[in-house]
Amino acid sequence: MNVQELLAAAKVKASEAKAMLAGDAPDMTKANALLAEAKGYREKAEAIKSAEGILEYAAGVVRPELPGGGDQAAAADGQAALKAANVLRFGAVDEPTDLVMREVYGGDYRQIALDQIKSFTRYMRSGAVDRALTRQVWGIEDVKSMLKDGLGVSEIKATMIEGQDTLGGYAVPPQMAAEILGRLPGLTVVRGGGATIVQTASNAIEWLKLTGGGSQYRTAMRGLWGSEVASPTEDDWTFGLETINVNTYTYKASMSQSLIEDAQNIVSIFNRLVTDTLAIDEDAAFLVGDGAGKPRGILPSSANGHSITEVHSGHASLLTVEGIKKLRRGVASQYRNAGRCSWIGNSATATAMEVFKDGVGRFYFEYLDAGETFMRSAWRESESMPDIAGSAFPLLFGDLSGYFIVERLGLSVVRFQDSATGINKVEFHVRRRIGGNLLEPWKLAVQEVAA
Predict the structure, then answer these.
(1) How high is the pLDDT of residue 316?
(2) Where are the domains of the chain?
(3) Distance between CA atoms of 287 and 296, rounded to whole angstroms?
(4) Which neighbouring-strand residues pair with 377?
(5) Residues 384-398 as b or e (16 or more Cβ within 10 Å = b)
């Protein structure tokens, strides 16, 4: 919520409290609670206004030159304000991280990132492009992650892309990209449920896929018990290379010209619009994608050919309590950790399960809310899951770490405004590189509606 929305909310709460107190039998407890909410909204609004004031001051600070070496107090104030502004923008940064970031960027990374944000905002409003948007740079958390994965500073620098042709558009600044992509786990069921994330700078990865096992051992590999001098035996195991392509994903966000010109929070509006759509499209691909220019989904189909365990519901057209309990046992015990496993269905499936009754009319399950525990594991909802119908797969259970998401860091965007977009209309085409495939199908089981 911005300042205006917070103040409006405070006014509403205060009015409700006033109306309650004016009644014949006022509820003092509720009235005090409403007044406390109003106060909280006002305090948040003041905090935001103060932070914005610091940012504006830091962006426009001028240190006056006075005889005798200048105004030292004003210079100190300016430095303090600039430091506070950087903390608000980028968070507190320790000295080792600061040194690495300066080496990666080849200069003051905070200024480079800030210039890119300003350039992107100008590009959104007018379409004007400068060189700052032709380089895909990484944020602090991205660099830390690469360092932990063993990359050196020179290798990280090499992954920064220069040139519009390679990007397929203009780079979204790292802080903005981090805000968009950072919200995805909370809005998605596959990524948010613990899928394995692999970040790459190539167009595909190859993963070693072992086979030849059973329900207990998923491969034919075995260890050897014996003395220190015993030679290990060579077991009869097989393996292959599974390729996961990094697909291209594009999304078109349309806005009116007047909104782009007049809205002060145009960047945050853009971020929310893109994030929600990314989350929905991503989950649809990871759950039911056919692999044709997109990720291969988890659910069984002729397109993906996954050997995921299918457990019948026990009825030709409905789910049953017995079938759901059997589904949980469709995952072998060593992979059925309650804290790691999830249930996934759509809201219609959840409704059908909520109204299950026993022989005397009592409900089996009180409710199913996303994020809450159902039969000891988290319940997650996605409208991309199929509805309940004969031969459909409306319910999924298991450890989602068996699904692998491969992605390239960063986002790019292209702005369009011409006769094709229409009068007073601007289009932003967002581009992302991402792929996915189920490499460990034994960690999941699916309910098939069948007798």
Answers:
(1) 95
(2) 3-83, 93-162, 172-226+233-451
(3) 8
(4) 374
(5) bbbebeeebbbbbbb
Contacts of 184 (CB under 8 A, 6+ apart): 191, 192, 275, 278, 279, 282
Per-residue model confidence as pLDDT tens digits over 137-148: 788 888 888 888
Which of the pair, 189 or 132, is modelled with greater confidence? 189
pLDDT score, position 93: 74
| CA quadruple 136, 262, 180, 244: dihedral sign | negative
Sequence letter at residue 19 = A
For residue 225, what are its two tokens?
A: 């018990």
Residue 358 CA: distances (Å) to CA of 142, 318, 362, 364, 449: 52, 16, 5, 7, 20
Q: Cβ contacts of residue 411 below 8 Å, gap of 6+?
A: 171, 172, 177, 180, 181, 430, 431, 432
Q: Kindly report the average pLDDT of the chain as a whole number.
A: 81
- How far apart CA 330 and CA 311 sit, in angstroms, is 7
Four-way CATH pick for 172-226+233-451: 1.10.3210.10, 3.90.420.10, 3.30.2400.10, 3.40.50.720: 3.30.2400.10
Q: What is residue 52's DSSP assignment?
A: H
| Residue 322 pLDDT | 94
Q: Which of 108-112, 274-278, 308-312 has the highest mean pLDDT?
A: 308-312
User: pLDDT at residue 86 above 60?
Assistant: yes
Q: Nearest to residue 345, comparing CAs of 380, 300, 390?
A: 380
- Inter-residue contact 364 to 356 (CB < 8 Å): yes
Report pLDDT for 233: 65
Res. 66 pLDDT band, cuts 50 70 90: very low
Type and span of the H or E element at 276 = helix 266-288
58-67, 115-124, 253-262, 386-395: least confident range: 58-67
Residue with tokens 């993906």: 304
Between CA 160 and CA 105 the distance in angstroms is 10
The residue to which tokens 């967002």 are assigned: 430
In whole angstroms, what is the distance from residue 127 CA to residue 120 CA?
9
CB-hemisphere CA count at 13 Å for 390?
A: 3
Q: How confident is the model at residue 303 (pLDDT cuts 50, 70, 90)?
A: low
Give alpha helix (H) positions in 160-232.
Answer: 164-167, 174-182, 184-187
| Cα(406)–Cα(196) distance, integer angstroms | 9
